[in-house]
Automatic annotation (TrEMBL):
The keyword Cell membrane applies. This is Polysaccharide biosynthesis C-terminal domain-containing protein. It comes from the Bacteria. It is found in: Cell membrane. It comes from Neotamlana sargassicola.
Amino acid sequence: MGIVANQSFKNIILTYLGFLIGGINTLFLYTKFLSTQQYGMVNYMLSLATVLTPLMAFGVHNTLVKFFSVFKTRASQNSFLTLMLFLPLIAVVPVVGATYVFNQSISDFLAIKNEIIKNYIWHTCIIAVSLGYFEVFFAWVKVQMKTVFGIFMKEVFHRAGAMVLLLLLYFKIIDLDTFMNGLVIVYVLKMLVMKVYAFSIKWPILTFKRLNNLSAVLKYSVLIIIAGSVATVLLDVDKVMMGSYIAIEKIAYYSVAVYIAAVIAVPQRAMHQILMPLSAKYLNDKDFSSLKDLYQKSSLNLLIVSGLVFLLIVLNINQLYLLMPNSNAYSSGLFVLVIISVSKLYDALLGSNNAILFNSDYYRAVLVLGVVLVLIMVVLNMVFIPMLGINGAAIATFIAVFLYNTVKIGFVYKKFNMLPFSTATVKTLCLIIVFSVLFYFWEFPFHPIIAMACKSSLVVALYLFVVYRFRFSNDISGILKRYLWFLR
């Protein structure tokens, strides 16, 4: 876990920096400087672009990670990397062409409930293409075991750019249309900067020679589009579907709640970047002992760290809502926040499960199950959103994520005879439940900021003390002892 712990720690810091900037944007700047309808439109546009990203990347970001270590000679690596650069054009060219030819029809279809959507179809298309190629260039450096700068670009760059644009909008230096165009430019720049960095790590030598296992590479790329779409749809299809069922301003309330809950997934996102290439290497080398060790350690460590974040969010959420503009409206997303937070905690419990499945020979079966679950989620959204609004979307998402994750754990156990759980997992879950019960209804009678600081300090101190004192995880105990002087 040495390289995992080292890069994961740096990645977590950068990811939380990005989420801090994004949190300021989401909770205060967007809600203050944009109307709820305008903010709902921004979320809808970005969610639709995110849903399209796996198609725009054509699965290359996962294919590159899975197969790179298979090619041992410089010539074969160059041929493989050349293919990875051009393969996404198979999807990008038709999608851009269809957007140009059928723009009016697409606009009319997406804007059935909310007319404002019509104005930003091209914005969505360009951002989707930029996100797709960004993932390709990020994967380019992942296989070189260099993820830190990529995490900065993935988590910090676009949020900082959005903050600058929001401030320019507030001071009336730009108008709303310029702000929307500026968001597009930020995502294009993000992709171009990542490209320059990736090529500085390994300059592409264009080599157009046929690969021996070309059919396997292409088959995996096509199927991984489905896998990536499954994961993305589970995250963003709810917001896209809400645009057709409820007033678009309610998407803003939902998005704020989901964004806050997404902070729980930061450690998993950070660790995943290094877990993917390591899991691929262990699978290609058939080193199943190391694979199992990585699986169990990543699950436990993610649960401990994400569990602490879960507690800090859920135990302070009522005070946090009091700080927000239009707090009564946005606090209507409390149920959404809690149930999505629980699903994010379950995601953390999986550890390197996704990395194992996507880089193994069994990904096809998992893709079929994933597609079935996405269809279930779409149906659940169609049923629950008209009945319960944003709460219905949260329930549909929770059910789909619970089913999907449970199936994946069972599949890895059946094929590899390994589970991510241990006795320390049970202890950690009990600790999280006990802290939730003890501290949720205990409020300090101070200003919300002071109250959150007091409760958070107490919870963090007690939680880390228990984790360290009873040695839930040797990795985390080692990090605590290294960075907290009083434990030395």
